[in-house]
Every structure is written in C-alpha cells, then in structure tokens.
Amino acid sequence: MRFLSAAVLLALTLVCGPAAAQQPIRIGSFLSTTGPAAFLGDPEIKTLKLYVDKLNAQGGVLGRKLELVVYDDGGDAAKANAFAKRLIESDKVDLIIGGTTTGTTMSVVPVVEAAGIPFISLAGGIVVIEPVRKWVFKTPGTDRQSVERIFGDMRARGFAKVGLLSETSGLGQSSRQEALKLAPKYGLTLVGDETYAQKDTDMTPQLTRLRNAPGVQALLVVGVGQGPAMATRNVDQLAIKLPLYHTHGVAALDFIELTGKASEGVRMAAPALIVVDDLPANDPQKAVLSAYRKAFKDQWQEEPATFGGYAYDALTIATDAIKRAGGTEREKVRAAIEATRGHVGTAGVFSLSPEDHMGLEMGSFRMVEVRGGTFRLVK
Questions:
Q1: Average pLDDT, stretch 310-338?
Q2: pLDDT for residue 14 is more than 60
Q3: What is the pTM of this model?
Q4: DSSP string, 128-145
Q5: pLDDT tens track for 165-221
Q6: Relative to the CA of 179, which of 56, 67, 94, 204 has its CA 20 to 30 Å away?
Q7: Which pLDDT value is given to residue 21?
C-alpha cells in the first residue's frame, strides 16, 4: 500500500514525534588521557563526565539528555585524526570538544572543516584559531598571550637576556615561534635557543648550554606535560640559579608534585583557577571558579587543573549555544558559538566574534609563582 490514511499518519506522529524530540545530544570528544599529556587529558575527561551528568540530572538541554562519546588518542595525532572521523561518520555526534594538545587538534582541523561540524579545542597554540576557520574554536588562552605576559614580567624585573628551551612539537613549537617574534617588542634578546623532544627524559645538555649562554639572566621553558617538569628537575640538579619561567602548558598542581622543591620560585602565566583563593571577592571569575573547584573536588576528591577548566568552558559554551540555536542544527550552533558574548568561564570572560574564535583578552592570564608548594598570585 503506497499511501497511509490520515488517521494512521496522525498515530505515527503522536508515537514518533516525542521520541524523535528526545533523541540525545551527542557530544564527541578525543582526549589525551594516557601518554605524555595525560595530566592534561585526565582532568578534561573527568570534567566532561561530571558536567554531562550534572546537566542530565537537571533535565538535559532543551529537554534532551546529553550523551558523551570519548576516545583516548594517547597524544598521537594520527589516532586523533582517526577518532575524529569515527565520531563524525559512525557515532554521528552533533559537535566535538577535544584536542588536548595543539598537535592532536591540528591533525583533525581538516576533518571537521570538511564535515562542517562545530569543534571546540582545548589546546593552547594560537595556530588553532589563526587564521580563523569557520568551524574551529578554542577555550584556552593562546601561547602568544602567555609568552607576552611572561616577557612583560621579565622586563619589569629588569631581565634583558633570556635562554629558551622548547618542545619540538605542538604547543612548544608554536610558543617558540611566538617567543622569537615577541622578544624584540619587549627589549629582550634570546641568547640561547634549545629544543627537546616530547618523550625526552633528560635535558641537562641543553640546559648546560643555556646556563653558559653569554649574559643569560632568565630561562623560559615551553611545552606541556612531563617534559617541562623534567626540565625543572634538571635545572635544580645542575644548581642553575637563574629565574625559571613556564607557560600555561603546566598550570596544574601535578607539575608541583612532579617537581617537588625544584619548582619553588618558578613563575608562569596561567588562568586564574590555580590562584582562586588569592583573587579579590569582586573578581568577575571568582564565583564561577569557586563553584567549579568545589564540584570537581566533591566528585573526584582532588584539586582541579586548569586543563579541566578548559573542558568546562567548552561544554558550557557549547550547551549555551545549543539553547540559543534552539537545537543541534550544525550551522545554527556554529553561529551561536561565534556570537557568544560575556560568557564567564574558568579561562576568562569569553566574547567571540567572526574575527576571533577564542574571545579572551591577554589579561585572562595571571602571573603566578610557586611558593610553599602551591601556586600564588604575583601581586
């Protein structure tokens, strides 16, 4: 029979309509929960699970439950690329949150752009959003902003000659390029320029050369995960007394746990989460940061890291956009993400635009210092 009666059509509408409306909103994610960047990926996955459960307990978004589909790429760019394709083609997700590192993020950019699916990265490199790509957004501040904050602090302390040690991939490589471009702007000279591979376990040769660089007054290490922690221990082992700086790639208590007393006095540009107790009561982020930290500690019995905060920001920006878009139609969600204004998150206050797919000011980074085994705000 080729045609259905009006009564049958009405019955099908009554049965199928509500069921279709209750289809879950599928959030896809690929994260580095194992491997060298695991101390970034671990708080990210914990945050996504925590807040997806919280949202579902509150009735979901637009009356629809959220379904989280996650893969562990182990920090491998090729695996990240394959998982992104699986999320889009097989899992049929509505949007993607992920990319723990700059390297894994960049490997999937062509995939999400070709598919036309909203993608919010958790990686720090400015290459993620510069140039602007239609479907790609990010929540952490950029390495350019982090390096600028550090160089400003160095200049204020009277330093002029800096030794640079950078990871050869991802955020390290991107940060190195930014440091080379920005040093003259701040009246700094890079008197040493050394690199290390992500899986290296000893940087003493590079650090020895930096220590012997002519007139060196401070050191800057750029990278993520365990590499910068190893470099910090090596600085201590070599009894190098130069001021040591890191970027936001290690803004977590795990860094202090890995380095112990070797990290005392280390400075870095970082989001405000790790110094929330030092913030004044009128800081616009304080309430959001305090609530996120409490929820994370209550659920996981540990302090959250800034990296988990990036996942919180991505999920809240995405779900807010879905509400404003009235559903999960990709172009409408993408446009709503791009139109986000004044969204208070853990990384800062987000105001995106067609020209800026991150929407954070440089002031979102705070200068912090390791003192007494914890992070403290530099006044």
A1: 98
A2: no
A3: 0.89
A4: GTSS--TTEEE-SPPHHH
A5: 999 987 889 999 999 999 999 999 999 999 999 889 999 999 999 999 999 999 999
A6: 204
A7: 52
CB-neighbour burial class of residue 282 (10 A; exposed 0-12, middle 13-18, buried 19+): exposed
Cβ pair 67, 94 in contact under 8 A: no
pLDDT at 226 > cutoff 60: yes
Helical H runs in the chain? 6-21, 38-57, 77-89, 102-115, 143-156, 170-182, 204-211, 226-237, 253-259, 286-300, 306-325, 330-338
Distances (CA, A) of 338 to 47, 108, 315: 23, 20, 14
Strands ordered across the beta sheet of 267-270: 189-196, 161-167, 218-222, 244-246, 267-270, 366-371, 374-377
Whole-angstrom Cα distance, residue 210 to residue 192? Answer: 6
Residues in the chain: 379
Q: Are 168 and 195 in contact (CB under 8 A)?
A: yes
Alpha-carbon separation of residue 357 from 50, 127, 321 (angstroms): 26, 11, 14
216 token code pair = 């060196």
